[in-house]
User: Fold this.
Amino acid sequence: MNAAELQALIRDIPDFPQPGILFRDITPLLKDKRAFAGAIDLMCEGLAAQRIDHIVAIEARGYLLGAPMAYRLGAGLVPVRKPGKLPFKRLTADYALEYGTNSLEIHNDALSPGERVVIVDDLLATGGTAVATKSLLKQLGAAIVGVSFLVELTALHGREKLDGTPVNAVVKY
Amino acid sequence: MNAAELQALIRDIPDFPQPGILFRDITPLLKDKRAFAGAIDLMCEGLAAQRIDHIVAIEARGYLLGAPMAYRLGAGLVPVRKPGKLPFKRLTADYALEYGTNSLEIHNDALSPGERVVIVDDLLATGGTAVATKSLLKQLGAAIVGVSFLVELTALHGREKLDGTPVNAVVKY
Assistant:
């Protein structure tokens, strides 16, 4: 399946989660077995030929894509979580929301210096969560090979905030 | 990797998320590429020979295991989510916590009657979330082939609450 066929399975939901937001719902794509496998394969394109030690997946929808990418690439899987979920010693990074801030956490033994990782999430909007994840990975000394998204909202210019890191997105709006 | 080798990579965290709870932390297993792939393969054992239309994965740690199982089995992926996360029309099922209740939701078009599904989560404790997920799937008319966990806490007897549904767990405490 190519990107256009995948995009046709993404459903637009107006005014979710709040008025004025057009939500791109990937659940019809995920439930289609050919589309799901095709999306994972496209998100892995260009990565299979490299050494990737870990996929770093962002809670929660990033897990739906990052975990199968790790399996396909023969990599380990490292979850970045919302505050209070990880039980061991952890690092925290804040990121801005429209109003206020939120945080992401990673275990402080999740990665070793020099390990080659790819960050995965479902959607690139303003880039806040991906930038926060990059800062966590830099604190651990990991080598960030790239960031991989299923969907990119290009009008929000999140890609520019990820300067210097290769960004891959399968479906673009 | 066999179940004992996987179990050796699960870390015990006392008093998390609250005093008196011994938390079984699977993150050291997930980040080990051989263990992660081995866990997915063991969780899929006996399923590859059957027709499985969808993996139904429970938020959030269930996604880390259910999504790669769907990829490996060539199945579609259906996320069950916490309240307020799914954007389309949905069904809700409540389940009891030690104090109060919580809910899980599924899109009402996630599955068609007769589709063969496997429920996946990281850990079977009292069985509340798996039972709630079963009730969602029954409302949609799905055929529940089984429930697959990475870890089972046998002393909590969750398996008994899933009467009539085959339960698979790789690591048992």
